[in-house]
C-alpha cells in the first residue's frame, strides 16, 4: 500500500465550510456563475490552494489553477478538477466533490512527502453549469480552444449583464491566457447525477465516456390578443406551438430504439397574462445520446416539429443551436487506470457512460481523459436535496489518488 | 336634435394627455393596477372630475366616482364608466375610452346647461384587468357584493405585495363604502377587442350580453433531475404535463359544436434551466362561452385532463378555480335604448355578444345594464398596437350621450 493517503476528515471539514457559502435553507447551495457567492467560493479555494503550497494561476476566463511542481518541471501535467459554480438552488456535491477531492489528493502527496515525476495541477473550471451564461462548460471550452475569450466576454445573462463585466466585477479576469498546458492526463471525480451506482449498490463508476448533446433555443412569435373575444380560428398562440414541440420532444425519445433523452427545461412566455393569448414564447430543447448520429437526427426532427407547429398555428419562429458537443469516448488507458485504482482501494465498480455533460468532454479533445463517479442517492442532481454518502466521497477521492499516483509517475 | 352634444376635440386632447401617463415606446401604455403610473392616471382623472364640477368619491377598494346631481337628488343614479388600469404593456383604448367618454358625456350636459332628472355618475373601476392582482373586475365585484373588501385587501401580486398595502401606498383606499348606489341603469362604452365591427364596416356594436368565463390555475410538481443522466422512464417532468393540458385545451375548443374559447395564458416554470427537468409548473386556463353549461363542461374536462396528465407523468397537482363569472345577458330595455341612440346619431350597428369580460357583467346583477362597442382595428386588444379610429371613438361617445339622455329623464 502506498504512503500517500487522503485525509477524509480534512476533506469533510473543507466540504462543510465550503458549502456554507451560498447555502440555501433547503440544504443546497445557490452559487451561480459570477455571483457574489461564486466569488466567495473562488476566494476560499484560492486561500486553500495557497495554504497547500500550490502556485495559483487565474486565467483570462476565470479558470482557477493550483500547481504542485513535479520532479521534472518540463514533464506534461496531470490535471485534476471540476467546478464550483452551481445551479440556481442546486446541490452541494455537484462539482465541489471533484475540486476539493483533487485538492485533497495533491495535499496527500505533500503530507506523505512524495514527490511526483510530473507536475500536478488542480483546476476549478469557470461557468460549468451554464444556467446564467450559456453555453455551459464555458471555461473548459475556451481552454480547449472551442471558444474565443471574446466570445465568452460577450455572453449576456437574462438581466443583460455580460460574462466579461461580471468576471471583472468579481475580480476573476486573470492574466494567464486560457490555453492548454502540455497535458499528460486529465482526471475528474464527480457525483453520478443518475441512479445506476446506488441502485446496484456499487462504490464507484468508471466512466467510459460522456454523452454528446445539443442545446436548441426556439422562439415562437404570434399575436397577443384578448383571450375572450378572439375566435379560435383567428389565434396565433405561441404557447400552443411550444406545447406541441414539447410533446413531440417527449415522443421522440420513445421512438427509434435509441438512447436519446430530450428535455424542454426553460420556457419564457410573454406577456404571461391569464387573459392574453401568448405572443412570444422562448424555450429550450436539450437532446443527448452517446451516438452523434442520433443527436443529429433528433436536432433535425426538432427543427421539423418547430416548423410544423409554426405553420399550423401561423407563428413566426427562430431556432438557434446554442451548443453542440459530440459524444466523448474516453481513452482506454485512462479507463483501465481508473478501474485498476478502484480495485487497489477495494471498491466495487462498474463501467458506465455519463448522460450529464462534463468539462472532461472538452479536455478529452486535448489529452487522454478519465472520470470516476461516486453514487448519488436516488440519482438526484441539480437539486438542493442532492446527496452522496460521505464514505462514498472519501472512497472516490482515494481512488482518484491511486489513479493519480499511477499517472504522475513516468513509466 | 338635442342641444347636448359631445366635444370631440376636448375628448381627444384629454385622451392624448392621459395616455402620456405610463406610455411605452411601442405606442401603448403600462399602467397595471396600483402601479405608480396607475396612481398618476387616477390623480389626473380626479383633477378632471373636479374641473368638471363633479363631486368626487373614492371608495374603500379604490373605485373612483364623480357625481353630477340631477333635478331629483333622491332619484336612482345613471352610472357610466369603465376602467383606467391597463395590461402590462397594453393598449391606449381599452377602458380609457369608456371613462373619458363618460366624463365627456356628463360635461356635454353641463355645457348645454341641461339638468337631468336623475343624478349622473362617472366611475373608474379599480383593478379591472386582473393582470397584477387576480381576480379581475375586482372593484366592480366588491361594489356588487360578490367579494368582501377584506378579500380584495389580502390578494397578493407575484412579488408578495398585497392589494390593500398597494392601494394604501398610492393613496386610493377611500372612505366611502364599496356598496351599490341606488342604480337606475349602468352603461359602458368600450372598444370591441375583437374583429367583428371592423370586418363588417360598422360604427357601433350594441352589446346583448357578455360571455361567462372560468379561470383555473393548475400547478404540477415533479422532480428537478438533471436533463442528461435521468432516463426517460424515471422522469417526472412538470412541463410535459402542462404541455399536454395546453394541447387538450386547444382541442377542447374544436369539439362539441360550442362557442367555447380556451387559453393557457400564463406559464411559470421552475427552476427554468436549460439542463434541468422542470420540477414545478404553474399555469392558467381561461375558458369562455355565452352558455354557462358549456363553461361547466369545459372546467370538468380541464380538471380531468390535469388529473390524467399528472397520472401519466407521475406528478402531484393542484387545481384551483380562481374565478367564475356567469354569462350575463343584458336587459332588453337597455339594448333597445342603445340601438335607438345609435340610430339617432346615424351610426350603422349590429348586435353582438362580448367575449371579453367587463365590469358590466357584475353591474348587470344590480341594475339594468347595457354596453356599446366601437371597432378595434384588426380586432387587436391587450397589446400596444391596439387602435381605434378617432371618428369611431367620437361617434361611440355621441351614442352613449344619446342613450344617457333617454335614461336620465324620468318617464
How would you describe the overall organization of this protein?
- Two copies of one chain form a homodimer.
- Chain A is an alpha/beta fold and 411 residues long.
- The first copy, chain A, folds into two domains: 8-202 and 330-407, Aminopeptidase, CATH 3.40.630.10; 212-325, Alpha-Beta Plaits.
- The first copy, chain A, has twelve helices and 14 strands.
- Chain A is elongated.
- The model of chain A has no long low-confidence stretch (mean pLDDT 95).
Brief summary of the model shown:
In chain A, the strands form two sheets. In chain A, strands 1, 2, 3, 4, 5, 6, 12, 13 and 14 form a nine-stranded mixed sheet that branches.
